[in-house]
Design goal:
alpha/beta, Alpha/beta knot, 5-stranded parallel sheet, 5 strands, binds S-adenosylmethionine, RlmH-like, Alpha/beta_knot_MTases
Length: 159
């Protein structure tokens, strides 16, 4: 399976880079993973909500330009659906069974995801009602994708 992660913003923290690299290495056994990192649009403090929406839309268009037409898109969104790790694993497995060999996960920047991106998403996935920083979200997502492969292969992993 091909998995792309389209995300906004660079990873600045060393400990996150190390964690992300570790899960990229572990996942290389299970899938072809590509992380597409986009520069975030600068958003000064004093902008109106309309101006912020315009920036978010611009960011959204850049995100969508990186999504392949045939890809099944899972947008990470706080108000999306919550799944247990087992449910997430079976969602991934079912996509494979349905012949969806290309999945794109999308992680927004500090402004979140535009309506256009959310409308393109085939699934909106929430990791809880809490807001996580987008850099940390990338590491959490990679760990859960890795966990999903371990579960689907009946391989042991931390409970
Ligand atoms: C700092 S958050 C953006 C917060 C923004 N105010 C919003 O409401 O989306 C950056 C990105 O991380 C992801 N994210 C953060 N917390 C999340 C959660 N609990 N579940 C799913 N995705 C989350 C989303 O893709 C979000 O666009």
């Amino acid at each position: 399976m091909n998995i792309n992660i389209v995300c906004v913003g660079k990873i600045k923290e060393k400990y996150l880079k190390l964690g992300i690299d570790e899960f990229k290495k572990r996942l290389s056994k299970y899938c072809k993973l590509e992380i597409i990192e986009l520069d975030d649009e600068k958003a000064p403090e004093n902008l109106s909500s309309k101006e912020l929406d315009m920036i978010k839309d611009k960011e959204g268009k850049k995100i969508l330009s990186k999504v392949k037409g045939n890809s099944y898109v899972i947008a990470l969104a706080i108000d999306g659906k919550n799944l247990s790790s087992e449910e997430f694993a079976s969602t991934m497995s079912n996509l494979g069974v349905r012949g969806k060999s290309h999945i794109t996960f999308i992680i927004g920047g500090s402004l979140g995801l535009s309506d256009e991106v959310l409308a393109r998403a085939d699934y909106k996935l929430s990791f809880s009602k809490m807001t996580f920083p987008h850099q940390l979200m990338r590491l959490i997502l990679l760990e859960q994708v890795y966990r999903a492969y371990r579960i689907n292969n009946g391989e042991p992993y931390h409970k």
